[in-house]
Amino acid sequence: MVVVMMHRILLCLFALAISTHAAVQLGIDVLADRDFDAVRGKRIGLITNQTGVNAAGVKTRVILKKAPGVQLVALFAPEHGIDGTIAAAKYVANRKDSVTGLPVYSLYGPTRKPTPDMLRGLDALVFDMQDIGVRSYTYVSTMAKAMEAAGEAGIEFIVLDRPNPLGGNRIEGPGIEEKWRSFIGQLPTPYIHGMTIGELARMSNAKGWMEKRCKLTVIPMGGWTRSMTWPDTGLRWVQTSPNIPNVSSVAGYAATSIYGSLSGSGFDVGIGTGSPFLMAGAAGADGGAFASEVSRSGASASPYKRESFGGARINVSPKSSANLAAVNVYLLSAAEKHRADIFARYRDADAIFWKAYGSTNIKSQIERGTSPASIVASWESVVSSFRAARQPYLIYQ
Question: Which residue, 108, 230, 353, 365, could crosslink 92 as a Cys pair with Cβ 3.0–4.6 Å?
Fold first, then answer.
């Protein structure tokens, strides 16, 4: 009893210390404040990685392992692994966690959805990872697959909510056609969706975007509002993956990741530099021409040259007034002017580019010289429809 009381006193002191430094309480902080009521007495598995920390930076898996009355028995890791060090698109192996000693099941390898064996004996699956607010980032796909598995197994799915670093009001970009939904883009949202992971989970479950609905519980944040981007939260940024080291790269990813899926064919988005996703160009390109095209989008840009590449260095942040998703289209236009038929290698029905953008119509638009502004305007019906459709599932007003 004394040990349990000491645990609770320490957790309360921890929460008090946090509240003086951060404007936002994360879902894990709220859960701790509530004496872990949603998971107490349950055997749970935790889907997490290095971003699963509380406002003071303590790992969620450590907090839940030590929480009185909670039985954390298994961990599950997404793309990049539980420590976030594995390169993009590389399989993640099962392993033992060096921090907690618990088994870590990979959800980014031959198995991307928890199997019945992995879930056997669990009462609930808990999800705590930082998303970046862009459809093509696979952490939300992992959540959707795990929700489906929880529904099939008849166990609860609990989301510990976290901020959308781009804020809750920015909705931009193309939608996704059903045929192009994949692990790269699992949910039918605009490219930038303006929702937290908890809100996305609510909408996905209610809309039946997975084959099986689950019993869903979302632990909301405290103090977060839709107008907040990451710098407003007072929280420390934890690198979400090897090429998202900071919040500027989150905005850069929104602005260049569709274009970047052309990479491997003479195109560049700064991977391997200190500014991933904050530069975009092509082999042999005129950086001035790229920067001029990007500037037409409303984003600030300047020319760069590195090795054989020339292109635009892009100055964006979560607070940028520019349409971030639109920057991708201006980059595609610049690339097509530099080198005709940029989509030549994308005749394969399994091409990553189509899965990232969400359709093949961009090919004919770019090739016949449709203005980037017209292409961006064509997204508006998708954006406005989604903005209305998401309303019942929003937690923060």
Answer: 108
The CATH class of 247-374 is alpha beta
Token readout for 302 is: 């300047």
* 165: nearest Cα among 251, 97, 56: 251
Quote the mean pLDDT of the chain. 93
Lowest mean pLDDT segment, chosen from 18-27, 58-67, 240-249, 354-363: 18-27
| Per-residue pLDDT at 171 exceeds 70 | yes
CATH topology identical between 25-240 and 247-374:
no
| Residue 123 identity (one-letter amino acid) | D
pLDDT of 14 over the 50 cut: no
- Nearest Cα neighbor of 241 from 342, 138, 120 is 138
* pTM (2 d.p.): 0.93
Topology classification of domain 25-240: Rossmann fold (3.40.50)
| Domains of the chain by residue range | 25-240, 247-374
Q: How many CB atoms lie within 10 A of CB 154?
A: 10
pLDDT given for residue 8 in this prediction: 54
Residues 6 or more apart in contact with residue 98 via CB below 8 angstroms: none
Q: Which two tokens stand for residue 30?
A: 């709220």
